[in-house]
Amino acid sequence: MFKPLLPLLCAALGAAAPHPVQIHGCVGREGLLRAAATRNLPRYRRLVKIANADGTYRCSLEIDGWSLKDVLAAFKPAKKTDDGYDRPLDTFIVVTGRDGRKALFAWSELFLAGDGGPLLAEKARFLLPHHHDPLGRAAVDPIALQPPAGRDALKLESCASCHGQGKLLALSMPKGLCLVFPQDGFGGRFVEDVAEVEIRQVGVQVTANKAAGKKALVETPELVGPDGARVPLDAPRFQAAARAAYRDAAFGEGMGFHGLRVSTGADLGALLKPLLPPGLDPRSTCVLVTAADGYRSVYSGTEVFDGRGAVLADRINGEELPAGSGRYHVVPRGDFYIDRDVRIVKEIRILTPLR
User: Fold this and answer.
1) Under 8 Å CB-to-CB from 300, ≥6 apart: which residues?
2) What span, in angstroms and rounded, lies between the C-alpha atoms of 133 and 4?
């Protein structure tokens, strides 16, 4: 039986406004996120379940805000160091809250997504079960979308979360601008009261050799662990990893439709997990995949180890990879566009930028 949400006390006047958000790193224009920068951006609404830092349930909300990719686009993302690769597919984004909590995203999780990607939520409201008793009058309505100042004014000391279990949990409304990635599901990447957003480069140099892509065949790519130790990706190691498959209509930003494609091989996360040291949170990592011709992409640790994952394919539509595709081909499951696919895989490296 749901416990009624008790009437809220009057909101305190003069609630402090959230601190500004600093945008920096690989952008053409560093600075604070101002209201003017978001005024004309498209808005998105999503239903999300929020977890506490320890993984326990916190609340269920409807959020309203902007796509993080739209926010960052206004600051003109651009690499600041020549690392030998002229595309942003090997960059990543770190979002930090005022409590120090961080979340890491691959560039492509924002800019190659087809569903808005991670959201910077400005407004939020509690979801009220339809069997809930009527609410009393309150200065601030907890089931109306509230900006940060309105959420700060909510008085929830006498309220309990609505659920069907015996133990009632204290209600807690997130503060400030919040970074939410609904596609992660419960317990996914979430940053409360965002303080800064930084676009970073991987700091690994590469030499482009596009001509090599026409005939290269890397028989035994290398896996590089967080400690720099190299392990050959030989046939027994590949065959021992959990199998994976992914069917998609391949569509690229540059050349459009590439045909229907079923990629089969090993699950990339299962292949790499033995290289993670004990106690390392996979969500603090990212994975850099480099091809023999210098093409490369970054995948966040969340998507590789805890999310939709990626396939290290050795077959496309049941056949061996065609000429110019090498021995293995990395295919991420979450992207709308195929630009982050890497053929002729030469090296797969785990990085730990949040350690």
Assistant:
1) 92, 104, 105, 106, 109, 283, 285, 286, 287, 307
2) 6
- Contact by Cβ (8 Å): 329, 343: yes
CATH 3.90.420.10 in the chain is located at: 210-351
Q: What is the pLDDT of residue 149?
A: 87
Q: Rounded CA gap, 43 and 120, in Å?
A: 10
**Residue 121: half-sphere exposure toward Cβ, Cα within 13 Å:** 30
Query: For residues 52-91, b (16+ Cβ closer than 10 Å) or e, as one string?
Result: eeeeeebbbbbbbbbbbbbbbebbebebeeebebeebbbb
Task: Identify the CATH assignment for 210-351 out of 3.20.20.330, 3.40.50.300, 3.40.640.10, 3.90.420.10.
Answer: 3.90.420.10
Mean pLDDT of the chain: 86
Express each pLDDT in 160-198 by its tens digit. Answer: 555 555 565 677 889 999 999 998 989 999 999 999 999
Query: Average of pLDDT values for 250-271?
Result: 88
* 3-class secondary structure per residue, the chain: CCCCCCCCCCCCCCCCCCCCCEEEECECCCEECCHHHHCCCCCEEEEEEEECCCCCEEEEEEEEEEEHHHHHHCCCECCCCCCCCCCHHHEEEEEEECCCCEEEEEHHHHHCCCCCCCEEEEEEEECCCCCCCCCCCCCCCCCCCECHHHHHHCCCCCCECCCCCCCCCECCCCCCCEEECHHHCCCCCEECCEEEEEEEECCCCCCCCHHHHHCCCCCCCEEECCCCCEEECCHHHHHHCCEEEEEEEEEECCCEEEEEEEEEEEEHHHHHHHHCCCCCCHHHCEEEEEECCCCEEEEEHHHHHHCCCEEEEEEECCEECCCCCCCCEEEECCCCCCCCCECCEEEEEEECCCC
Q: How many CB atoms lie within 10 A of CB 341?
A: 25
